[in-house]
Description:
The protein is α/β, with parallel strands linked by helices. The chain folds into 2 domains: 2-173, Rossmann fold (3-Layer(aba) Sandwich), CATH 3.40.50; 176-357, Dehydroquinate synthase-like, alpha domain (Up-down Bundle), CATH 1.20.1090. The protein has helices at 25-29, 44-60, 79-91, 106-118, 132-138, 176-193, 195-203, 205-209, 213-233, 248-257, 265-282, 288-300, 313-322, 350-357, and strands at residues 2-6, 13-18, 37-42, 64-69, 99-104, 124-129, 143-148, 151-158, 163-167, 332-338, 341-346.
Amino acid sequence: MKKVTVDLGDRSYDIVIGCGILSGIGERLKPMRFSPKIAVVSNPTIYALYGPQVMSSLKEAGFSCFAVIIPDGEEYKDYNWTYHILTELLKQGLDRNSCVIALGGGVIGDITGFAASTYMRGIHFVQVPTTLLAQVDSSVGGKTGVNHSLGKNMVGTFYQPRLVWIDVNTLSTLRKRDFVGGMAEVIKYGIIHDAEFFEYLEKKMANILDLDGGALVHIIRRSCEIKAEIVSQDERETGQRAILNFGHNIGHAVETETRYQQYTHGEAVGLGMCLESRIAEASGTLKPDDRRRIDDLIAAYGLPVSLSQGMDAARLLSHMKLDKKTVAGVMTFILPKRIGEVVIKKGVKGDDVIKALR
Ligand SMILES: NC(=O)c1ccc[n+]([C@@H]2O[C@H](COP(=O)([O-])OP(=O)(O)OC[C@H]3O[C@@H](n4cnc5c(N)ncnc54)[C@H](O)[C@@H]3O)[C@@H](O)[C@H]2O)c1
Ligand SMILES: [Zn+2]
């Protein structure tokens, strides 16, 4: 079992990572002195797999608990289902010292965190992430939110959990495609911050893809450490936190252009990292050898490295110009200098982006 502490003063919290620790959640929460009734928010897919273990662990630790189940899918991460969650919490009489647990992937984590941050102006919130993406990215850092019909993740809060409890064994039931998508964010941490970690991902690929417990605990722990370090220096993304967006300018444009139908988020980010590395190479900041290593690793994990036929570069560029990361028409990109270090580059020209896309 490994522990990473997110250092945010009196809002600091632990991320605990281990194999087969799911049924230890009740014991871990016991000393935290929450009100005795706990809500567990999940969806039918995840709840069928892991709900019973979590519920019996909570009961054994002396809590009474109830489940709030919302349908499975990104399209339910919205205001109406937030309202539903809040209604269930009110009906069950949760008070200001109560705790809500998110049991699931990023969708469940985001909507549950959002509901927890507004219920009675904020109650305790615990994340039990069950996808690789949620374990290395969405459960860490305190961004919560839901989608609006006019834009993705447009409504939300910064709200830190009290604990993140990660059992890597839950990844055994995850779709391969979702697992590989999560690997894009893991690779991202290597490129932006840790060359040695990047090398580990090259060398231990077989162990990781075989879901070897030790390898999984290592990559999740290191990913959480890197994200925690960056977030604790810049919680509200006024500066350095932006480096976490590497691969995401082009990635988001690709997702928008394909209406979130063709690529998973991780696939789009993998592609974005390759193409943004090309911008870095063309502008002379990144050596060709490093650029190739990035491409090779992303491809080796089964992620796309070039745009599919027929994707229009000019349309992608127009999406990037409309993105919330573009301010007053100035496009900012995160560009690798070498593996393990990136720079925030303001004022990247449209033409240079187009060249990388072709
Ligand atoms: N808050 C943040 O900082 C942040 C960061 C990145 C992404 N996000 C958000 O995260 C969401 C994507 O998260 P995701 O990729 O985890 O998707 P998801 O939550 O939709 O999960 C993917 C699928 O896997 C299923 N699933 C989850 N755990 C499982 C398991 N252990 N076994 C079998 N099936 C399982 C889910 O039911 C779902 O069908 C998006 O809404 C995105 O906006 C948030
Ligand atoms: Zn991402």
